[in-house]
Amino acid sequence: MWYGTPAVVFACLPLWVTPALAGTPLEAVRPFYDHVGLELDPAERGRFVDPAKAVLDARHQLVKSGQGDCLDTNMPLDSAAYDKAELDKSLKLNEAESGESAIVVATFMALGEPHRMQWKLKKVDGEWKIADFLSVTNEWAFSLYQCE
To answer: What global pTM score does this model have?
Structure first.
């Protein structure tokens, strides 16, 4: 039986109900594989910093103007057709931190084909943010997209 006082319980309550922030680079990247297309949601823009944020902002203006879209809906998946069950089973994430920057490498299978993505992150105000991501498999970088 615990004999703590109610004051201790109430003092700890904010620690128990506060949502977890992206405390590690892996935690910052994983949602893009759990929810394909998340990067295109304007409500999720806070997960990014420049240069990736600049590409997403330019894309948003293009779509808003009615001129179409400049990005695929599954770029974190190397723009490949995929089966969610295969993706979930094969996804491997590895991270390497160096001070205020980090790299996360994602490897996965998409319809039987291996893919490798590299995510570049920066720590901003204690949270990991996506600065860029690129396909090692197909040799493109998100930051090089021109949404004009």
So the answer is: 0.84
Rounded distance between C-alpha atoms, residue 78 and residue 109, angstroms? 11
Mean pLDDT for the chain?
89
Residues 6+ apart with CB under 8 A from 57: 45
Residue 13's Cβ-count burial label (10 Å; 0-12, 13-18, 19+) is exposed
**Total domains in the fold of the chain:** 1
Task: Decide if 45 is inside a domain.
Answer: yes
Rounded Cα distance between 143 and 148, Å, is 13
Residue 53 has pLDDT above 90, yes or no: yes
Within a domain: 80 = yes
Give me the domain span that covers residue 122: 22-144
Mapping DSSP to helix (H, G, I), strand (E, B) and coil, where does residue 8 land? helix
CB 104 within 8 A of CB 83: no
Cα(92)–Cα(89) distance, integer angstroms? 9
Residues 6 or more apart whose Cβ sits within 8 Å of residue 15: none
